[in-house]
Structures are given as C-alpha cells and as structure tokens.
Design brief:
Layout (H helix, E strand, L loop, with lengths): L4 H6 L4 H18 L4 H28 L17 H7 L5 E4 L2 E5 L6
Antiparallel strand pairs: 1-2
Helix pairs in contact: 2-3
Length: 110
C-alpha cells in the first residue's frame, strides 16, 4: 500500500464510523444487560451521531471531487484539456457559481 500525501488527501477518515458502530453496539449490550435506559440513550446517541458525522464527511468529500480530465472541444479557447481551461479560467467554457469553479462545459452555446 502506498501511503503518500496525495492518497491521504482523498481518503475520508474511518474513525467516526468505527467508533460510532462500536458505541452503538455497546449501547445495545448495556440495554440487554439492563444497566439502565439512560446509559443506553447516551451511548446510542453518541454512536449514531458519529455515524451521521462520517456520512456527512463522506458525501462532502465525494461532491468536492471535480473531474476535469476530459478534453475541451470549445472552438473559442482551443485548449486540449479541460484542466487548462480551469487553470486559466476561460470564460467561454467553465461553469462558475459566485467565485467558485463548479464545472466545465463543452457546449459552445452558453
């Protein structure tokens, strides 16, 4: 396995999901052994919130990965790759929302 810096940037941390599953399982074990309903609710609330936190991180990370590896066929800027359009911020073929680049379009009818 290669653990260089670029692969660590792409990974979502796994500690929230593991800790959340363990705490939720521990809550049910406490419930089975009748250690108290308050203990069950505390552990299950923390566990479920950690699982939801991991899910938020996972969906946020997947949405932020914009892929600009396709080629640009825009007749105005004549770049080969979409990455060049994004780097130079070509107004003819990039899609922006406020000050952020959210995509690249190959249609010349914008």
């Amino acid at each position: 396995m290669d653990f260089n810096k670029s692969s660590k940037k792409k990974m979502v941390p796994v500690w929230p999901i593991i800790t959340g599953i363990v705490l939720t399982a521990l809550a049910f074990i406490f419930f089975i052994f009748r250690s108290g309903i308050i203990v069950f609710f505390i552990f299950s609330t923390i566990g479920v919130s950690l699982i939801l936190f991991w899910y938020y991180l996972y969906t946020k990370k997947n949405k932020s990965n914009l892929d600009f590896t396709h080629e640009c066929i825009c007749p105005i800027c004549n770049h080969d790759k979409a990455v060049l359009c994004v780097e130079k911020k070509c107004a003819c073929c990039i899609i922006m929302k406020k000050d952020k680049i959210i995509g690249h379009s190959n249609t010349s009818l914008q």
